[in-house]
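Appendix B, example 12.
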Amino acid sequence: MRIGLFAFALLLSLSANAQTRVSNYAPGQNEEGVTYFLPQTVLHITVTAEKTTFVPGDFCRYAEKYLRLKGVSSKADEAWDIKDIEVTPVGEPNKEQAFTIELRDKTVAPLVELTPDGVLKAINTHSPQSNNPDESESTQPAAPLINPRDYMTEEILMAGSTAKMAELTAKEIYNIRESKNSLTRGQADFMPTDGESLKIMLANLDKQEKALMQLFTGTTVKETRKFTLTLTPTGNIDRKVLFRFSQKLGVVGANNLAGEPIYVSLENMNTVPAPTPDEKAKKKLDGVVYAVPGKARVSITKGKKEYYKAELPFAQFGNKETLSRKLFDKKTTTQVIFDSTTGGILKIAAEE
């Protein structure tokens, strides 16, 4: 039986003289009803990393000679740093927890809302919209660089050697600084007529100086990237390598020994006691089946550094319960909203 949002049309078209019953789903079973899945809670782990790229300037060797700048590097370099790690619980259908709402006589057929992949969201009402995170790698582009050659004079461009170009560029930088000092002191030959014009002139001179200084000091570009990993816990996790991180390569795979390991740990807190075998045997899932989620502690670490720590609800660490068929008979209209991430009930209201 296909699973999807056809549930709305199917249920609304049926007679009001129907009874709701839930049974375990059997593939190929030909029944009139709505098949849904309970969710399993997976973790979308988003790593925000920043890449810093340094490119030395063309005149870096002359920075101390002409501008008295010491310690200017002449070597290109790249370095990565982890800025943040976020964890977002998301519900995915648990294919081993499928149930069918069947329609029979004597009760009102409920309006059922499912997620696009078949997880139960609501009965007799609409659930709030939720957006799952994008799993693809995303990049925040760096700001465009200023081209220093756009601010070189004809004399600089016509110079016969790099040393001469560096000398003339340094002189142009000093001329720009002198012009800025004259403007701020009100001693320029051509002073602007108002304060706004003065700001514009000073901003243009700052831009020219910055562009020409890059030829000596080099440029540093920062670029932010986000990587999303998915973790589906089935039990406790003791310091599993989630991914590896290299200052030179950034985020790499868990098996890439070029990076340091980043560990994830998960501890089931057993907030919902598991039923005994006898309780399982006696318990009948007669009604609308939903999940009572349990909690687990989640942490992400590297050495002594802790990137993330929280207690989160998980559908797979809880139990299953049922809503009685009587809640959906002709005398009662029950509205239920489920958490499609954990399977638990978010809201329930009944009208006589």
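The chain is about 20% helix and 45% strand. The first helix runs from residue 7 to 13.
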